[in-house]
Write a structure and sequence with these properties.
The structure holds 2 protein chains of 2 kinds. Chain A is built from 15 helices and 13 strands. Chain A has helices at 15-29, 62-75, 103-106, 114-130, 139-148, 175-178, 196-206, 224-227, 230-233, 247-256, 271-278, 291-295, 307-319, 321-336, 340-355, and strands at 2-7, 33-39, 51-54, 79-82, 95-98, 133-136, 156-158, 182-187, 214-219, 239-242, 259-262, 283-286, 300-302. In chain A, the strands form 2 sheets. In chain A, strands 3-2-1-4-5-6-7 form a 7-stranded parallel beta sheet, sandwiched between helices. Chain A has a 6-stranded parallel beta sheet with strand order 10-9-8-11-12-13, with helices on both faces. In chain A, helix 1 packs across helix 15 and helix 11 (271-278) crosses helix 14. The N and C termini of chain A lie close together (7 Å). Classes of the chains: A alpha/beta, B alpha/beta. The interface between A and B is medium-sized, with 28 and 25 residues.
Amino acid sequence: MTRLLLDCRMADWTGVGRYTRSLTRALAERGDVSIVQLVAPGEAPPVPDAESIQAEGHPFGLAGMRAYGRAVRRVQPDLVHSLHFPTPTPLPHPLVVTVHDLIPLAVPAVMPSSVRRATYRLLVGRAIRGADSIIVPSRSTAAAVREFSASADEKLTLTPYAADDFGSDAGQLPDAVQSLDRYVLGFASVKPHKRLDVLLDAWQHALPLLDPGVSLVLVGSPTDVYRGHALARAGHPRIVWVDGVDDAQLRALYAGAAVFAFPSVYEGFGLPPLEAMASGAPVVCTDAASVPEVVGDAALVVPSGDASALAGAMLRLLADPALAADLARRGLDRAATFTWARTAELTVAVYRRVLGPSL
Amino acid sequence: MTTSAIRFGTDGWRAVIGADFTYDNLRRVADAAARVIAAANPGGLVLVGYDTRFEAGSFARAAAEVLAARGLRVHLSDRYLPTPALCWAVAHDAEAVAGVMLTASHNPAPYLGFKLRMADGGASPKSFTDRVEAELAEMVPQSGAAAARVETVDLVGPYLEALRAMVDPELIAKAGLHVVVDPLYGAGQTYLAETLRSFGIEVTELHAERNPGFGGLHPEPIPPHIAEAQEYVREHGLDAAFITDGDADRIGAADRNGVFVNPHRIIALVARHLVEDRGMSGRIVKTLSTSVLIDRLGAYLGSEVTTTPVGFKWIYEEMLKGDVLIGGEESGGIGIPSHVRERDGLLMALLLAEMMGQRGMGLGELVAELLATVGTMEYGRFDTKLDPAVMERFVASMPTLAPATLAGFEVREIIRTDGIKFLLPDDAWLLLRTSGTEPLVRVYAEAADFAQVDALLAAGRMLVDGS
């Protein structure tokens, strides 16, 4: 059976982590490949009963890349799949690399240090040049990779992510949310491209027009963006913060939301709107990068950065139960077309192309 | 430049100061206009105004003297003024038969222009400017001895009083606003800020001095030219920014976060305010290139929406027919005929402030409320210059151009009143318009999201030049 080495060292991250965990599990459930999971010391692999190997050092550092290389030599896999852009030293073959996005190049504020951006560019360039095949989750990311390196074009394969692990197994709502009548759900990420500021602006715009029973639930803790915002000084911003939620609670939060609001201005794919749709929440999102590809016609899409439009769309959904129900239904239908089994199927097809008919 | 090269465009004659816009050429244009005006109204009163551009006041005096030399009585403004002020003054002076405004509106600093206004304050129709152009070819000697008939008067004060009477001082005061006003060095400077202050609004005014170079700015109230106002309002936590163009007939705005409120949204907000808050009625007039959000709002308000070809002169034509509440276009030119049949950036700023006071909301909130009612649409536009041969081919193909689909959209209807407008499902549309003066095509599109707008614009380019 074809033996794969999967770089799972970033399995506890948010978006990249969810991809790592879900794809690794979906691959393990197939009978046609066997997996070896590369993990950081002390971390549990996504599939506990499958083989794993540890590598010291930060995945982005030279030590981490060398440790990755040593693991390749020890495991002697048929194929190495870097589930994020860090690649082993020396470069092995066959090598498949997943490029989720090129956010630091599109939104430099995400990585303000020009030295770090230069390093990032080097590492991504090395991965793109060294890979035998490159997996991207969206046409938008494919275009970004092509722009970064025209020679990457023939290596690219579109392999969307999924959210079929949402929509069931919802846990209890966090205590702070249980007493709320209705709420809009959002994320309080510190990452600049997630645009918490736009969500807060939109909330501020919507507040005077909202039913008093509607709150904004933000997953995360108050950030500097919030502390510097006028809402932080307002008497009753009607914001409830929930931090440290696990996946079961997150499923419950999505499922209970009257609206899920996603103001991000750049995404490689955009898992949260898909997760919200899979959970039956009506979605308002931006038209940025890959997001429209993901949501199709199953969400209200507003111009990115336009807080008034975001607020307007939230208000429409809150005031129009029929529209909200229709979007929720369309969201469920659309989300059902994205499954991790399908992602694994498309990924194995990439492996087959690289390895030939032997797989 | 020979007189034959002087042409009146959509709103008068515009040219580069010192190159084509010279005292000689201006006097020729003014004299031709004077002969046409005097032929119908011998000894009639003409009001003359000017903006803040280089030498505009001196040019205005020269024009005034030429008009007077043809036996017309002339009232020359004693200071720079917005175009809508001149129009209002003409419309409300029973004796005035015409107006002349020396301005290049939103054009860059090197330009100046000569706008003609009719007795109702509205723009001169093409038939009138055609006659002026025809007169330019004639060289008719003038006496040059009638400068004494030019009287310098205050045209601004009565206009500002009328403006103040258009809004409710208590409602504006109630808003408790602190706003930025940015006249972009143009003719709105001081006037809008002072009027707002007179209602108790705190105002920080930017670019409020005579600067014929416009400080390198392009006096058009859209991004990126309004960046300083956007930044200022955001940085200082103010309530809004109101920006007017070079002659203050156009408006742009930004909310407290510095987000640009585009003219489509301003038209809709003001229309909504007039109907819902002030109980007014009448048609809403927009141009073919203006957002479908206006149509949706009209349906919501129960107000008829009339769509005209592009250009405020067409909106003016509708105003002449009557029963128009408000008319506006994509460029930020918005007018209310019960005030004057002309665009007025100052009035729009006052009405927005009044709406903020009456509804107790900021601009961002008002836009959110609007979009909650009418939904959102994305809008895009580009202009493409063509090789003359390609332009000729495209123009020849226009009458029969009728694709069944565009970027995957089924073409539901084709409107050919001004260029070609393709109406598509879900309120999407694509508009192609040719320039009358150069090999240039303007391509506009509106659709549910940016990707669709991009696809439609690309389809438009394909139709225009096959690329």
